[in-house]
Amino acid sequence: MLAPMGDLANLQGRVAGENAASANCVTFPGTIQTGMCKVFDYAAGSTGLSEAAARRLGYDDIVAVVSASPDKPGFMEGKLLVTKLVADRKTGAILGAQCIGPGNVARQIAQWAMAIQGRLTVEDVVNSDLPYAPPFSLAIDHGIAAAHILQNKMKGRLKGTSCREVMEKVKGGEKPFLLDVRSPEEFEQMRLGIGEMLVPLGALRRRLHELPQDKEREIICYCKISLRGYEAALVLEGNGWKNVRVMEGGIMSWPYPREK
Ligand SMILES: Cc1cc2nc3c(=O)[nH]c(=O)nc-3n(C[C@H](O)[C@H](O)[C@H](O)COP(=O)(O)OP(=O)(O)OC[C@H]3O[C@@H](n4cnc5c(N)ncnc54)[C@H](O)[C@@H]3O)c2cc1C
């Protein structure tokens, strides 16, 4: 990959210097195109392959997931991160990660860059030993949580769909049943506004009769970050619905206008 970055220029300078001093003993191994930038209060970073780049390079069985969560607990003023993780389904190898948000994107991208260069798989990452204390991280780091969700997807526990796929279906006239399982207060503050139904997770089991009774009908569950959305999907599957998906990253990953 071409990656004309300042850190690589310096690393290559060191390699050139070492070779000059010690007779061509080292090589520069190349780059996985890690980089990040700041856009007002947001940071955006990327390392390795995007989903599209991986497909272009011939990976034909890719699994990807979008995950949203804070970088640290709320009582430590955690800020949101949204990560997309891309892996090769056959080998589990992590191919790429992109992260955006007002939270600590640099930590996430640095972790994923090392994981990719170390050729780690999703299985390797799900139990990584990273530093945790509330001022710095969640007990389950945002990136590890993303790997957990990807692992759930690879094992068939989670059937996900991206916000973009949902929007394409809505625009294309398909009518997936959209189920928001947040609280009425959260719904009041902000919602997708594209014909969704609100049934808070806590009330879902006693309000199942209000959902489409055609058990083949596609139902897409979500909440703020789709943790409750995932629980809702399990409740529905447990009650016989066969075509249930979770909108990955929830309403916080929705890249289109929302209703307030
Ligand atoms: C505004 C800006 C922001 C950037 N921010 C980042 C960042 O945040 N992170 C990051 O990783 N990268 C960043 N970069 C990129 C990074 O600065 C470059 O990739 C890096 O400096 C390249 O190093 P280099 O040594 O290859 O080339 P350069 O730093 O361009 O050095 C080349 C040198 O060769 C000299 N030169 C050219 N022609 C001749 C000649 N004929 N004879 C003698 N000398 C010559 C030039 O004067 C220059 O001093 C940024 C670049 C710009 C412009």
Shape: elongated
Q: What is CATH's topology name of the largest domain? A: FAD/NAD(P)-binding domain
**What is the CA-CA span between the terminal residues?**
43 Å
Question: How many separate domains make up the residues?
Answer: 2
CATH superfamily of the largest domain: FAD/NAD(P)-binding domain
Small-molecule binders? flavin-adenine dinucleotide
| SSE order, one letter for each helix or strand | HEEHEEEHHHEHEHEEHE
Mean pLDDT: 96
Using only CA atoms, what is the Rg? 21 Å
Instruction: Give the CATH class of the largest domain.
Output: Alpha Beta
Record field, number of beta strands: 10
Structural class: alpha/beta
The percent of residues in helical segments reads 25-40%
Q: Would you kindly provide a written description of the structure presented here, covering whatever features stand out?
A:
Strand 7, helix 7 and strand 8 (197-198) form a beta-alpha-beta unit. This protein folds into two domains: 35-154, FAD/NAD(P)-binding domain (3-Layer(bba) Sandwich), CATH 3.50.50; 160-253, Rhodanese-like domain (Oxidized Rhodanese, domain 1). The longest helix has 17 residues, at 6-22. The chain has a five-stranded antiparallel beta sheet with strand order 1-2-5-4-3. The chain has a five-stranded parallel beta sheet with strand order 6-10-9-7-8. By secondary structure, the chain is α/β, with parallel strands linked by helices. The termini are far apart. The chain is built from eight helices and ten strands.
